[in-house]
Write a structure and sequence with these properties.
Number of strands of chain A: 0
Shape of chain A: globular
Largest interface: A-B, 125 and 121 residues
Strand content of chain A: under 5%
Oligomer: heterodimer
Structural class of chain B: mainly alpha
Number of helices of chain B: 15
Shape of chain B: globular
Radius of gyration of chain A: 24 Å
Helix content of chain A: over 70%
Largest sheet of chain A: none
Radius of gyration of chain B: 26 Å
Distance between the termini of chain A: 8 Å
Order of helices and strands of chain B: HHHEEHHHHHHHHHHHH
Helix content of chain B: over 70%
């Protein structure tokens, strides 16, 4: 439970390890039998049901609407038709939304991680007085419902000319997410090997040098998890971008999809195409960051 | 715990010289220097969280339409809330969402994780278990809004998949306007949330199980314990910390639900799927009763804070090595 940095035994690797002992020590249980196959098939059916909506979005996004009307949503399209997805892409200027989301998520992730590192350095390495209380306050900043902040933020950002401006949302989300990052990193740094710090201090290293030369490289794995999480959280975030980025040219992917959920109701393949456009980037992130994500899910749960 | 016993010789010899042997460091390096590193975070916190939250509390004591000067009305908004059926409906629905996001996914997740870990993996290999786990996890990768758009399409009354399939199976009488009918809207939304959440719990609980000593299972098996006995007396007790943390964090998330409601139903039909977050949002930006919306948001914040404190206490108690 002390969790120094992401545990080296990541989730994907663990069943294998377990299985190795299972194969040698528990050969009696390795017989499959009818009941074994029944359980496997039941689970496979349940898992197939879980991903069935993805499959439906995929086949219907590329199905001609005439075919949808004739054969319904289940039939596999006999020809690939990109009309729906192209119409959607151009109709909502999806390139622009993707760009907005990338800029917003990327800068929030980097700024939030830097903020987290600075605060956590003060709390975890600096051992500030009352650090438990400071952390508690940061933790509350993370859990507080955004609804209780949104109207004042709306008022303040209009006064500061940051309303309908990606910069405003970037600052707000970076601060809110760094609260979680601080909480997590501070406990990692709290159990940082003191001998290393002592040695550096005796060599005359300043606090900033200690941060840059010793702490930063050694916490890089945890920072990678944080950056990934912040990026994906921001990408998926809906509430604050919805309120603070009203104009179409500033909207993110999530906000633009949420806004159109009321439209397109008469065209069955258009919503499938919209879903597909939203699924694709998420799927790409997942494939890119799979290991980091799984590691992060587990750290997040135990922390 | 560690500080209670009076200095056991071996560890002390490793620790004490470090503390007493470097007086120069403590003299030169005042801890004040570290406060500078807290400054950016603190300024951010004050500007983005503390001041806005204070403003929200103030708004909640006023009658204000978003323009002009707020008029101080004391606790009128709170008094009005208590008499508002929509307010009670919204918090009642929160309990349904705790069921859909916390309780049911946790129960299913523990069971699925145990089956995958302790049944499928030994019999069919870790690869089979990994693939199944990934399939259960897949909905988790979606932005909630995308999940909402996807399901809105599945639930469509005229051409939606669910009604089309029911019709095709000769069960046309089961067709519903799933999101448009107040009898089914809540269940339809809950279904989406369960679908979204299961992957998270399965992954967390499987990771938890990988820490359990395999010898426990082997000993139980030698004693003749069946799968369900092992499940109840080993798996569930061993996963208790994970279960507690997952239940609390997902309950907090359930109280804050907004995006699925915005995308799927906008609280309707009527108030049949309204939640506190959407209720305050619509007061802020649809009916512009800012003071009233702020009161809802403040109460929600209070509730979430209480749960968060419980979580924090639980976690600091468990995180040894940090407290010292």
């Amino acid at each position: 439970m002390t969790t120094t940095a992401p545990a080296p035994d990541t989730a994907p690797a663990s069943p294998e390890r377990h299985h190795k002992t299972a194969r040698t020590n528990r050969s009696a249980r390795s017989r499959r039998g009818i009941s074994g196959w029944t359980v496997l098939i039941l689970l496979a059916v349940a898992a197939a049901l879980m991903i069935f909506p993805f499959w439906l979005a995929l086949i219907n996004a590329f199905k001609p609407s005439t075919e949808y009307i004739a054969d319904g949503p289940i039939g596999i399209p006999t020809e690939l038709d990109f009309t729906a997805i192209i119409d959607f892409w151009i109709g909502v200027n999806f390139n622009q939304k993707l760009l907005n989301s990338v800029i917003l998520s990327g800068s929030v992730a980097l700024i939030a991680a830097s903020l987290s590192l600075l605060s956590a350095f003060a709390i975890g390495i600096g051992r500030l007085k009352g650090r438990v209380w400071i952390l508690a306050v940061f933790m509350l900043a993370f859990t507080i419902p955004q609804e209780a902040l949104v109207y004042p933020l709306f008022v303040l950002s209009r006064e500061l000319n940051l309303y309908d401006n990606l910069l405003g949302v970037t600052i707000i989300l970076a601060v809110l997410q760094s609260a979680f990052g601080t909480y997590m990193l501070a406990s990692v740094l709290g159990s940082f090997p003191m001998e290393v710090l002592e040695a550096a201090r005796l060599d005359g290293a300043s606090r900033f040098q200690i941060l840059r030369i010793i702490v930063l490289p050694l916490t890089r794995p945890t920072l990678a998890v944080l950056v990934t999480f912040f990026f994906i959280w921001t990408w998926n975030d809906f509430f604050l971008p919805l309120v603070l980025l009203p104009s179409a040219s500033n909207q993110t992917v999530s906000v633009s999809l949420g806004a159109l959920s009321g439209q397109y109701t008469s065209d069955p393949t258009a919503l499938a195409a919209a879903s597909m456009a939203g699924i694709l980037p998420a799927l790409i992130f997942f494939l890119l960051f799979q290991r980091t994500l799984m590691r992060g899910v587990n750290i997040g749960a135990i922390k | 715990m560690t500080a209670v016993t009076p200095a056991p010789p071996a560890p002390a010899s490793r620790n004490t010289p470090r503390r007493t042997g470097t007086p120069r460091r403590t003299a030169r390096e005042t801890p004040l220097g570290y406060w500078i590193y807290l400054l950016p975070g603190a300024i951010g916190f004050i500007g983005i969280v503390a001041i806005p939250f204070g403003m929200n509390l103030y708004y909640s004591l006023t009658s204000w339409r978003g323009v002009g000067t707020p008029k101080f009305v004391g606790l009128d908004n709170y008094a009005r809330l208590v008499a508002d059926p929509a307010f009670w409906a919204s918090f009642l629905h929160s309990t349904a969402f705790i069921l859909a996001m916390a309780v049911i996914p946790t129960a299913l997740g523990v069971f699925l994780a145990a089956v995958l870990f302790d049944y499928i993996a030994p019999k069919f290999g870790a690869r089979a278990a990994s693939i199944l786990r990934a399939m259960f996890y897949l909905p988790q990768i979606l932005p909630i809004v995308v999940a909402g758009v996807l399901w809105k399409w599945l639930y469509q009354p005229q051409y939606g998949i669910i009604n089309t399939v029911l019709d095709g199976m000769g069960l046309g009488w089961l067709q519903q306007n799933w999101l448009g009918d107040s009898d089914t809207a809540m269940l339809a939304v809950m279904n989406v949330l369960i679908w979204l959440q299961i992957g998270y719990t399965v992954v967390v609980f499987m990771a938890g199980l990988s820490r359990v000593d395999p010898a426990l299972y082997e000993a139980a098996e030698i004693d003749g314990a069946g799968w369900f006995q092992r499940f109840w007396s080993i798996t569930v007790p061993q996963l208790r910390p994970e279960i507690a943390v997952v239940l609390i964090t997902t309950s907090v998330a359930a109280l804050k639900v907004f995006a699925p409601i915005y995308v799927l139903t906008r609280g309707g039909p009527g108030t049949s799927t309204i939640v506190p977050a959407y209720f305050s949002y619509s007061n802020f930006f649809t009916t512009t009763q800012v003071g009233y919306g702020a009161a809802v948001a403040s109460l929600l914040a209070l509730l979430v804070t209480i749960i968060a404190i419980v979580l924090l206490r639980y976690q600091t108690r468990n995180a040894e090595g940090f407290e010292k």
